[in-house]
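Dissemination and training. As part of the outreach component of the grant, students in the summer workshop were shown how a complex can be specified as a set of sequence lines and then modelled as a single object. The example used during the hands-on session is reproduced here so that future cohorts can follow it. Participants entered these lines:
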Amino acid sequence: MNEKLNTESVRQLLNRSSIHLDGSTLARLSDARKQALARFDARSTAPAFAWAGILTGSGRTTGSHRSQYYWAAAVLFAAILYSGATYWQHSIEHDNSDVDIAILTDDLPIDAYVD
Amino acid sequence: MWIDGLLRRLFPLILAALMCLPAMATAEAWAELTPIQQEAMAPLAKDWDSLFKKQQQHFLKLADHYPNLTPEQKERLHKRLVAWSKLTPEQRKRAREKYLAFSKVPPEKREQVKQMLREQEASKAAASSVPPAAPAH
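and obtained this result:
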């Protein structure tokens, strides 16, 4: 029983009486079932809370799902950063408008301040 | 499960909205400006639509101050706006620095400097208005 278990072999094995199976095969079958159930459990529960899991670091996701969510979070973070930086730049320009209007309405010509 | 589906659908929209926020905060075409903004920016009317959006935003912030200006200040603004619009960002930055430095000078000293500059301007204007002397025969 060194060959790798696949769906078909598992189906055939299950069709036989478990009495005919040796202990190691039963143990491997049991392990495979547990792993399959664990994977099914992870797939069915992870997506609903994956977004919260990213933030808390407690998400129960598989490797590929976690990677996808991390990428999504990174892109979102970059977008927020970009928007924030642009908004901040606009705010700075707004602060300059007080000085600009003072220069443009001063009793000295702007040539006095321009190189 | 529905939260995940909703987030999946909304994610591109949220992302697009965030990326477009700066673009959404852009200025408008000349025809869409308010009458006050148009009056304040009148010297730039001809070139307004060809200005970069960032420049338009810069000038619209100046227009916000317009209603609070005296008639004399409004006239000065109109006279200087075109020259100001042609300066590079670096020149404007330097001008702001100079203005702020000059505003810290004591009032008496500042008045002296202003008087000196006015005299220089007057002598320059006088020199440019005098026609060159005719050559002696």
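Residues 10 and 16 of chain B are 10 Å apart (CA to CA). Students were then asked to discuss how this feature might be tested experimentally.
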